[in-house]
Amino acid sequence: DGGITQSPKYLFRKEGQNVTLSCEQNLNHDAMYWYRQDPGQGLRLIYYSQIVNDFQKGDIAEGYSVSREKKESFPLTVTSAQKNPTAFYLCASSTPSNEQFFGPGTRLTVL
Amino acid sequence: DQQVKQNSPSLSVQEGRISILNCDYTNSMFDYFLWYKKYPAEGPTFLISISSIKDKNEDGRFTVFLNKSAKHLSLHIVPSQPGDSAVYFCAEGVFQGAQKLVFGQGTRLTINP
Q1: B36 contact residues in A (CB cutoff 8 A)
Q2: Is the CB of B43 less than 8 angstroms away from the CB of A90?
Q3: pLDDT at residue B97, rounded to an integer
Q4: Residue among B4, B21, B34, B101 with most chain A CBs within 10 A, to mutate
């Protein structure tokens, strides 16, 4: 089945540690995105990538990094520089003219 | 300042009645709007969209209305069903190679039996 997978579903990290969230899609979509959702807020764009080996900062990129070495994969690293990393992280992908499809999300909790 | 606003954090509707979810926006330079539905601990799923050149789009029980003069968007669900209980997000989009979406804060819809 085509879709987007994110792993793990729940992730815990100690303060000061970097952590990488996985996002894989087999939809053959060129564009991929990372969002963050906090309680009572909409989704906010962290980073996006239009094609392999290219990515751009979204609205809240500070403290995050990404890579796009393969079309299918767009991992997000939450670094120790991110001041409030506890959130629900969502990955999405799309073709240029169609709606974005979202993965199931990863809930990151910093202890 | 919030570019896309959903001013009602929650809405409660009786099963079988009409649910109306509202969204206001400030930026007129958009290409389309989308509505997404989200259950807890899951990713949003696409519901319906509307192009900036239209004022209405209908898909089964779901209809989206766009009032560009008022910068207002609404989603009508009729008849409402228990499975419609979820958080609904509106999102404004612009075609820029990748789609840069700006989301509202979401409205939690509860359908009461």
Answers
A1: 102
A2: yes
A3: 66
A4: B101
